[in-house]
Amino acid sequence: MQEKLTLKKIAGITIAVTGVFMITTIGRGHTFSFSLSLGYILMIASTLNWAVYSVLLKKLSVPVPSLVLTFYMSTTGFFLTLPFFIRNHGVDQLRTLSPEHWAHLLFLGIFVSAIAYWYWAKALEVMQATQVSVFLYFEPLATLIAAIILLNENFIASSLFGGLLIITGVMLVQGRFSFRKHG
After folding, report:
1. Which tens digit of pLDDT belongs to each residue from 16-39?
2. What is the pLDDT along the chain (183 residues), one digit of tens a residue?
3. CA 60 to chain centre
4. Exposed, middle or buried by CB within 10 Å (0-12, 13-18, 19+), for 99?
5. Where are the domains of the chain?
6. 180 φ, ψ to 5°?
7. Are 150 and 115 in contact, with CB atoms under 8 Å apart?
C-alpha cells in the first residue's frame, strides 16, 4: 500500500480533528477540556478500529467486487453477533417492534450499513486510505447541521469555526490546497 503520510496530510488531519473537538466540546457549550472518560476512550478505540479497517481493506486488495466483499463482511458480522442477540432475547424484542421501528431498523440496515459500507469499499478502490478516512470528520458537522435544522438546536459561533476547520482539514488531505508559490 504505497501511501505516504505527508506533512500536508498530517496538518489536514490535525486541523480536521481540532474542528471535531470544537463542535463536540466547545460547540456544545462546554469549555475545552479532555477528561479521559469511558465515552472518550470508546470514541478513540472506534476511530482507531475504523482506521485499521480502512487500511487493511485497502491493503488486502481482494480480487472480489466491493459489493461481494461488503456482503461477506456483513454476513460475518451477523453471525458473530447472533449468539449475543439470542442470549439477550432479541427475537422477543423484535416481535414487539412497531411498524415505525421496523422502518427505522430497515433504514439503518440498508442505507447506514449495507450501502454505506459498499460505497466506503468502492472509495478505497480508487483513493488512498487517508483520503477516504478523513471524510469521517464530516459526521459531527452533518450531525450539527441536522440538529440545528431538525431539533432547533442553538447555533454557536465556535461550531461554525469548527466546521470550517473540518472542511479545511479535509481539503488539505484531499490535496485541494497548494502551499506552492505561483508565478
Report:
1. 888 888 877 765 555 555 555 666
2. 566 778 888 888 888 888 888 877 765 555 555 555 666 566 666 766 777 777 777 677 667 777 787 788 889 989 999 999 999 999 999 999 999 999 999 998 898 888 888 888 888 788 887 778 777 777 778 878 888 888 888 778 888 888 899 889 888 888 766 655 555
3. 21
4. exposed
5. 7-174
6. -80, 150
7. no
| Whole-angstrom distance, CA of residue 27 vs CA of residue 163 | 10
Cell of 101: 421501528
**DSSP codes joined into one string, 32-96:** ------HHHHHHHHHHHHHHHHHHHHHHH--SS-HHHHHHHHHHHHHHHHHHHHHHTTHHHHHHT
**Numbers of helices and strands, H then E, in the chain:** 9, 0
